[in-house]
Design a protein that fits this description.
This protein has about 150 residues and is α+β, with helices and mostly antiparallel strands. It has 2 helices and 7 strands, in the order ααβββββββ.
Length: about 150
């Protein structure tokens, strides 16, 4: 156990030493230098991509362990299990930039009154989802997961 603790402490020490700038620049300068989206010495221009009109999503039913890919047109709704998924906006960066696809989604959990009659659903998610970081802003539901795969212009 002592060996593991010593190894952990040594790795943390070396990580903190390696994170220090060696050329006299500040940590903020290093972060800016490593940021692929940062443009040195100039303002960022207009967006180089156009919004898409179809969001490609993947849904997981945690009970059956089955996934299904489905498409939602912007402004339209699609049913996935007991969820209603509505896409409001999506955009995908072009290949020459840092890859990213993101979409603004609203997800409702459909309910019944106990006798099988649908009642108004509860909004369980309303926000941005990012394809490269699905855990950053996930849908939190006990039965279903939904995440963004792509944004297309048809």
């Amino acid at each position: 156990m002592r060996i593991l603790t010593a190894l952990f402490a040594a790795s943390m020490l070396s990580a903190s030493v390696s994170a220090q700038p060696v050329d006299g620049s500040s940590t903020a300068d290093l972060l800016r230098r490593d940021d692929p989206d940062a443009v040195q010495g100039e303002e960022r221009g207009p967006l180089s991509s156009e919004p898409g009109n179809v969001v490609v999503l993947r849904g997981l039913d945690k009970v059956t362990a089955r996934t299904r890919d489905f498409e939602v047109a912007i402004g339209e709704e699609v049913m996935f299990g007991a969820l209603t998924v509505r896409a409001q906006y999506c955009r995908r960066r072009p290949p020459e930039e840092t890859p990213e696809t993101y979409a603004f989604l609203q997800i409702l959990d459909r309910r019944t009154d106990g006798f099988g009659v649908d009642v108004e659903g509860e909004t369980i998610f309303s926000g941005w989802m990012f394809a490269s970081r699905p855990a950053q802003n996930p849908l939190e539901h006990p039965v279903y997961d939904v995440w963004v795969l792509d944004c297309r212009t048809d």
